[in-house]
């Protein structure tokens, strides 16, 4: 059996269990990440200025029928 603990899961558990607030965890993450990391994260999640300036944003998602 592996004792590997995903640090991302642990960080989420700390928030869910009330050891740290969501805002504090976000602040810690953003201060740890480089500016380029944050910019890439925003871009990948369609939250960068290039998406915000698009008059069609937010985009409607199509539901996929199974």
Describe this structure in words.
- There is one protein chain.
- With 66 residues, the protein is mainly α.
- It has four helices and no strands.
Secondary structure topology:
Layout lengths: L6 H10 L5 H11 L2 H10 L4 H4 L14
Mean pLDDT equals 86
Number of helices: 4
Task: Indicate the overall shape.
Answer: extended
End-to-end distance, in Å?
36 Å
Number of extended strands: 0
Radius of gyration: 17 Å
Q: What low-confidence regions span 5 or more consecutive residues with pLDDT below 50? A: none
Q: Report the β-strand fraction as a percent range.
A: under 5%
Q: What summary fits the major beta sheet?
A: none
Run of helices and strands: HHHH
What is the helical fraction, as a range of percent? 40-55%
The secondary-structure class comes to mainly alpha
């Amino acid at each position: 059996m592996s004792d590997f603990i995903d640090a991302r899961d642990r960080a989420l558990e700390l928030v869910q269990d009330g050891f740290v607030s969501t805002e504090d965890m976000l602040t810690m993450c953003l201060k740890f990440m480089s500016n380029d990391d944050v910019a890439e994260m925003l871009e990948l999640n369609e939250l960068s200025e290039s998406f915000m300036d698009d008059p069609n944003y937010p985009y409607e998602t199509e539901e996929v029928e199974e």
